[in-house]
Design a protein that fits this description.
The longest helix is centred in the middle third of the chain and has 15 residues, at 41-55. The radius of gyration is 13 Å and the shape is globular. It is built from 2 helices and 5 strands; from the N terminus they run βββαβαβ. The two termini are 19 Å apart. It is 29% helix and 23% strand. It has one domain (21-94).
Length: 95
């Protein structure tokens, strides 16, 4: 997702074509301490929340995979906290 909230499907279905159910979001970009591709934890949480809202009531983000290098485990903990504040309470994260 770019800084304007526009997303691009690299592989798989577009958001409106995904079957109902649980969603897995994979974040794959350059990582550095405290950010992914120069985006804050709050921005990443906002993008994930946007995806969940765009897919509708029959969907729920259940897993967030963080692939970028140089992230620490605390990043995932902070991201989950931000997601909970945005109403995504059942997600699990892995680095």
């Amino acid at each position: 997702m770019d800084k304007n909230g526009n997303y691009k499907v690299v592989y798989g279905l577009k958001l409106d074509q995904i079957p109902k159910g649980d969603l897995k979001v994979m974040i794959n970009a350059h990582g550095a301490l405290g950010s992914i591709a120069d985006r804050s934890i709050e921005e990443i949480a906002k993008y994930i929340s946007t995806i969940e809202q765009a897919t509708g009531e029959d969907f729920s983000v259940r897993k967030v995979s963080l692939i970028p290098c140089d992230l620490k485990g605390e990043y995932a903990i902070k991201l989950l906290s931000k997601l909970r504040k945005r109403g995504i309470s059942n997600a699990k994260s892995q680095c």
